[in-house]
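Aim 2 progress update. The chain analyzed this quarter is reproduced below.
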Amino acid sequence: MNARLSLVFLAVCFGVALSDNSKQWVLLVAGSNTWGNYRHQSDVYHAYQIVRSHGIPDENIIVMHYDDIANNKQNPTPGIVINKPNGPDNYHNVPKDYTKKTVTAKNFLNILTGNKTALEGIGSGRVIESGPNDHVFVYYTDHGNTGILAFPTGPTLTVKELTDAINQMHSENRYEKLVFYVEACESGSMFRNVLPDNINVFATTAANFDESSYAWYYEPVRQTYLGDEYSINWMEDSDAEDIETETLQQQFDIVKKKTTKSHPQEYGDQSLGPLAVGEFQGRVNSNATVPSRRSVNRGSGISQWDAPLDVLFRQIQAAKLPSQKLALQKELDSIIEKRTFVESVIRKFVSHVASSHEQFEKLMQTKPAELKNLQCHHDLVHAFENHCFDFSQQQYALKFAHVLANICENGLNANVAIKAMQQTCNGLAIRGRID
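Predicted C-alpha cells:
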C-alpha cells in the first residue's frame, strides 16, 4: 500500500485529517469582566497556553479578554492568573488583540467571519483569515441563557447571529473543519436543533439547553472561583493526554463523565468526532513539558448564578474586622435587593404580555420552549436590552431571558411584547452592576 493510500485508509478508519498543509486558527473569548468573574478570563488564559504550547503560532491565535484581572487591586499576585489552586501562571505572553470595550459580540462576529474592513482601527484589527483547507477552533466562556451569550460590553450575541455567521463561513469556504467549545449557562441552546450536521461543524457545550453551568475551584486567597467545571475538565485533559492521538469524541466523553454538576452536550457533524484533538488545539505533543498542569483535588462547584453570592458569604466569614464584615454584608444586601427588583420588573413585563394567569405561568416557566423562531427571539433580546436591562451590566437579568424565547415560541406577537417592554421599563434605571 503506497503512502497516499495509507493516509486514505487511516482517514476513513480513524478520522485522521488529510490536509497536511492546512492551517490551524484559534479564537479564544472571555465574555465577562470584574474580579467576581475571574474564572472566565482565567479559563481563556489557560486555553491560550494549551494551543500555544502545542505549536499553534501567535499569528493564528486571536484572544478577546477584558484584561482587568491580572493587575486588579484584588489580585494578591499581580500579573499572575491561575486556573486551579497552586496552579501555574497562565497570563504570561497572552496576546491583547481585543481588550476592554472592544470585547463585543459585533467584533466577535467580524473576527470569526474574517471581516477585516469592519475592524480597522479596533484592537489589533486581526481576524480569522482561514481558507477552505483550514481548521478553526473557537472557545467561548462566560454567562448565557436561552439563545444568548453575554459580552462585557453590550449588546449580547444571539443564536441567530451565531448561526448566520457559521452559515456565512460555510458558504464562503472559510474552513475545512470548525469546532466550538462553549462554556455558559443554557449553552446547549446555541446549537440545539439549529446547527446542521452536514457542514463540517462540531460543537460541545458545558450545559444543555435549560441548566446552569458551574463555577469551580474556589480559592480562599483570591476569594473567587478560579475556573469553570466543563472548561477545566477539557483543558486539564488536553494537558494530560497526547492530543495527537486522542480524538474529539474521546475528549468529550471524558469531559462528560467528569462534569458532575451539568450535562455537557455535543452537536453538529458527529463525523468529526474521530479527528484528533490536536487537529484543532495544536499538532505538537508537548505533554512532557506541563506535568504540573494535571488535575488537583476535585473540590466542589456552584452554579454561575449563585457564585457571586457564595463569594460574598465566604468573604464575610473570612473577614476579621467588624467593619469589613459590615461593608461586605451591605454589598451582599445590595445585590440581593437589586436582584429582587430585576425579577419584579421581568414578572411585570410578562404580565403585560400574557392574556391569562395560565399563560403568565407558561411564559415564566424555567424550562424554555424549543427555540425555533430565531428572528423573533433576536428582535426581542435586543429590544429588551434597549428598553429594560443591558445584559452586559445587569447579568442577573440573563437568568430570566428564557421568557423571551417562551414568548416567541408560544405564538405571541413580537411587537406586542416590545410595547410591553416600553410600558414596563420606560424611565427605568438601576445604579450599579447586578451580578
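The two ends are 61 Å apart (CA to CA). The longest strand covers residues 24-30. These observations will guide the mutagenesis experiments scheduled for the next reporting period.
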